[in-house]
Amino acid sequence: MKQYRNYIAGEFVESTRRFDDIDPADGSVIAQVHEADRAAVETAIAAGKAAVDGAWGKTPPAQRAAMLYRIADEIERRFADFLEAEMSDTGKPTSLASTVDIPRGAANFRIFADILKTAPLESFKTDLPDGAHAINYTVRKPLGVVGIISPWNLPLLLLTWKVAPALACGNAVVCKPSEETPGTATLLAEVMHAVGMPAGAFNLVHGFGPDSAGEFITTSPDIDAITFTGESRTGSAIMRAAAEHVKPISFELGGKNAAIVFADCDFDKTLDGMMRAIYLNSGQVCLCSERVFVERPIYERFVAALAERLKSVKLGWPTDAATTMGPMISAEHRDKVLGYYALALEEGASFIAGGGVPHFGNALDNGFWVEPTVVADLPDSARCIKEEIFGPICHVAPFDTEAEVIRRANDTRYGLAATIWTTNLNRAHRVSQSMKVGLAWVNSWFLRDLRTPFGGSGLSGIGREGGMHSMNFYSELTNVCIRIDQEPT
Q1: Which tens digits make up the pLDDT trace of 17-49?
Q2: 286 is catalytic
Q3: How many CA atoms, within 13 angstroms, populate the side-chain half-sphere of residue 426?
Q4: Less Cβ around it within 10 Å: N or C end of the chain?
Q5: What is the pTM of this model?
Q6: pLDDT tens across 350-378, in order?
Q7: Are residues 238 and 356 in the same domain?
Q8: What is the C-alpha separation between 113 and 474, in angstroms, rounded?
Q9: How many domains in the chain?
Q10: Residue 123 lies inside a defined structural domain of this protein
Q11: Quick one: pLDDT at residue 487?
């Protein structure tokens, strides 16, 4: 049985309280996870402070960048180990984990190493009335110890998305991965150890939220900033905890994202794109499109084509190259998604495809599976239209005018992403700029330049990450102002 230990002050640490890590594909126990208690978290935070006050916080940017490159190289050297851990923890197919999760995990370190080496700092000259002048320049310093709480849906990708810029800026980190997906985070600690990351700069603590590692991190007065990706309710709880000590926060939360398909779209490319936008990672991506609006002239054709495409989706073992969709992350989450399937039926939905639980006739029947699903005919006021489901389901509805669909797409308390499909250039610009979201795609989905701002509004989060937006969040910026008097005559 594998043992996933905490990593604190440069050492792997065991604990007396442990919990099971379960493979969602077949329900089997794959590892024992060591839960960090309050004392362990406090030790990790103290180690982080010592690292920032010591060698790591004073390491020149070029050397920090070199360390990030070594981390990326070591992740790639252990690619097979990361791939196995990612598939075992999430059940996602190798076709996804090997092309998105693990490569992006390494890429996050490289991109922020590159940004670190070229990060600009402001400088201004100010002329004064008496003939003197002032020089203002900016100094970038670490915030201190950053608490990082990452989710289970893209475990390595979203953890490294925060760890890389935090370390690039000279901070120490105390990371708590989801209790559902401790594997790749533990491997990342092994990578940090192998490349010689100074003790205390990277700390990993396993556990849960309330009365466990998550709460101990977010309520600690010695944590200098908190970054979190996860559901909106948890974000609200963390926000209340952070307010006690008035510290910076960055939240990427849930979404109830709209897709808008106009009749003039490239139909086949749109269908390809929407299959990804709805069902990637079994719909367990905050950016997935749960509300699909299709212009009426092609509505019937689109719904029929989407249902036909679902027949080719292959559910199965993650290691099978033919598998294209995995299970839900846990029994609890499966039951939540199935609860929404039942609610959709109660609210009057028509089920175009799916809606149930697949049967395999083997050990997969012990896993946490649901069928990919398409529903229609719900009013915009239905709970299934308003609430995030986070599963392989979408609701498809017709629309008649551009103004109508903009209003309906924006009728949500979330504001994360939207995707628009049209060949009309003017419409593409008009509609994308009208979306009340942090990210609007046109004729694409999940296409990212890591230098651009990423985040949402409303229940979808606070702040922006990516490129210099991340660097500025993870830095304390100090302005130095020097008055220079004229030389006496």
Answers
A1: 999 999 999 999 999 999 999 999 999 999 999
A2: yes
A3: 1
A4: C
A5: 0.96
A6: 999 999 999 999 999 999 999 999 999 99
A7: no
A8: 14
A9: 2
A10: yes
A11: 84
- For 291, 340, 410, 489, the CA distances from 382, given in Å and listed in that order, are 12, 11, 15, 79
Q: Could you give the CA distance from residue 26 to residue 88 in angstroms, rounded to a whole number?
A: 10
Domain assignment of residue 405, yes or no: yes
**Residues 207, 321 within the same domain:** no
Do 474 and 401 lie in one domain? The reply is no
Cβ–Cβ under 8 Å, residues 264 and 478? no
Residues in the chain: 489
What residue has token string 């651009």?
A: 452
Question: What CATH number does residue 429 fall under?
Answer: 3.40.309.10
Q: How far apart are CA 436 and CA 360, in angstroms?
A: 42
Q: What is the CATH number of the domain that holds 33?
A: 3.40.605.10
CA distance 279 to 357: 16
Does residue 127 belong to any structural domain of this protein? Answer: yes
* Residue 455 belongs to some domain of the structure: no
Name the CA radius of gyration of the chain, rounded. 24
| Residues 107 and 47 both lie in one domain | yes
pLDDT of residue 488: 81
CA 107-447-146 angle, to 5 degrees, is 45
Do 240 and 288 have their domain in common?
no
- CA 164 vs. chain centroid, Å, equals 14
Nearest 5°: the CA angle 22, 73, 86 is 15
Instruction: Determine which one of 180, 252, 290, 371 is catalytic.
Output: 252
- First-to-final CA distance of the chain: 82
Catalytic-labelled residue, pool 169, 175, 265, 286:
286
| Domain extent for 192 | 2-253+460-479
